[in-house]
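Data card: per-record layout.
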Amino acid sequence: MEQVLFLGLNIFAWITILLLVFKFIMLYTGKLPSDVVSFICVATLLITGTLTEEQGLAGFGSNPVVTLGVLFILIAGLIHSGVVQWVVNHIMGEPKSEKKAFLRLMFPVAAISSILNNAAVTILFLNVVKTWAKRIKVAPSKLLIPLSYASMIGGTLTVLGSPSNLIIADIYKTDTGEFMPLLAPTLPALCCLLICICATVYMRKRIPVRKAPEESFESRAEYTVEFLVPSENEAVGMTLEEANLQNVHGGHLIEIVRFDREVISPVPADEFILGGDRLVYSGHIQDLLNLRDSRGLVSATHHVYSSDEVMKNRKLQMATVVRGGRLEGRRMVDFDFEDKNGVVLVAVAREGERIAGMPREIELHAGDTLLLEGEKLNPMNFSENLIFFDNIALPQESMKTLLASGIILLMVILSFLDILSLLNSCLVAALLMFACRCCSIEQVRDLLNFKLLLVFVGSYCLGKAVDASGIAAMIADAIMYFSGTNALVGFIMLCVVANLVTEVTTNAATAAFFAPVALKMSLELGSNPLAFCIGLMIAISCSFSTPVGSDTNLLVYGPGGYKSTDFLRIGIPMDLLLLAANIFFVSLFFPL
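The structure for this 592-residue chain is written out next.
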């Protein structure tokens, strides 16, 4: 049956476009978790026939998805064998100047990111860098942006370095029938990395000294905390003045919230205390916690009768909100996150400053820092919604450190010499990690992020739909309309447009969208498809200017206490510099 066209596109193309717009809006606003968005996109593509069942289900078993899953085993092996601790002790060391600290941090982080997922490397080094910064007397905020940049560009050194690289490499193989070598992007990416490190060191004064979130939580004048009065508390039935709960050491009572949501503010001294009242204090955290413990108050999400019900073995811990997780765009008071996970939200900080008001009433944003209280908090149980960034314990160096490093080197050699495919090389390395006991199955299970894999599948399937529906060919034709038949001009326009798009969406989504476009353009221009794909890899990783443009930027945004404008100050010149370097070096090493 002949397909009806509207503005030159068939119905399947318009379905794909609507899904791309839907995904962008949902991820940007945080109204739905990213894994739910991906599931909706894949399901819609299958139901409408935009993709066949074989094409859609193939995404779950595709080469890049399986490779990404195997990488979690390698990451677990490197973490639990003491490789990171070796890097901290022998490479990062104790530099005598800020300039040397930048260099000692960025080179090893970039090297590790070239083999492992760059977002995972950023998470791994977050706590390390914060502790290391205090030891060498440098503000953590001065080092966390360089950590993000090193992870970001380091991920372009090999095909394994980032999920977006894996997507582009797979689409390249599908269209050309050739495997992209593991080290295909290494030469131009290495040149870009060196320029990035030198530029970061040169512009280091543009990176501000910001107050870390934990400092915001310790601020006497800006700290707010909410306590609940159990029904059996001795203060029930007394006035605030009689119970000495109004003006307390280190703080004062701002308001009372009754069980029926009545808010009393300002609070008179003769106000009676009822069981179930929530007392909102402003003051110094330690003094307020001492008040809570001494007066039998509790941090709780529901009515309790005695402080013994909730106060055993509880501790405070800080975490940052993950983009696309269940918490983004929601208030704790509106759903059961606290009850389900046995935690209480005590305070919220954004851009290095504590947010005034009742913590549980605050709409959370990606990158917000949360102060949580709970019993035996396990960071792995929260990995899809929160990244914890304090109190990390790294395994010490041992013989396994050498074994794990050797296994990674063997993997690179097997793939580089084309003895095994990239996926098979990773599988061999994963088996050796288990055989040498560099990690256990339980440790891999704790680290494995199924949500990330589902998001990856969604991006992969949308990329296939962009190609199959004719959207890629249309965009390629539009770019060539302005660039003419000049391959260099077309290549420049592709890199510029992809770089701009990736600043406001995810790298994987940008890769899935533009990889078919790059290959269509290279085919119609009679140019080198490998050059277009490698240029695209680097262009979509050069997202320095916004905290949402890269997962690595977003991961350091909260812990560093940064403001959005901090990324613009250094990010815009870095974007322009690396974009030019990418175009020059890719054209040099891979003639168009």
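Known properties of this structure: The chain has a mean pLDDT of 81. The first helix runs from residue 11 to 29.

See the next section for split statistics.
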